[in-house]
Amino acid sequence: MDDTAIRALLDSILAPWVKELRLAPESIADDAVTLRLPYSDHLRHAGGVICGQVFMAAADTAMVVVISHALGGFQPMTTVSLNTTFMRPVKTGDVVVTARIQRRGRNLVFGDIELRDAQGELAAHATTTYALITK
After folding, report:
1. Domain tally for the chain?
2. Residue 36 carries which DSSP code?
3. Is the pTM of this model over 0.85?
4. Where does the record place the Thioesterase domain (predicted)?
């Protein structure tokens, strides 16, 4: 998948509130996809930092994109698990979200996601398992 295909995927499969995150492709490799989460004040909670829910939604979305990329296009899938560790608060600046496939089986895909702040520091790390849905 190229940038155009990833943008089309994001436009076609995401829930409206996830589209509001304005995730955009940053780079693409064989086993990884990096998206940019543009900063916006409305992503912050009362404590002044970007909400954990935003990071989890961005991580989940990035993993769907890298799995779709590996499969040559989107096919139905569902998140089985998403475990996130928040390592540092992010108050401002874009966040770079890189999702990698660690292992792809017949029905399950395992991956990890790094979310880095504008200075390149690791802000959150997630591991995930997806089930591919066959008809």
Report:
1. 1
2. E
3. yes
4. 48-123
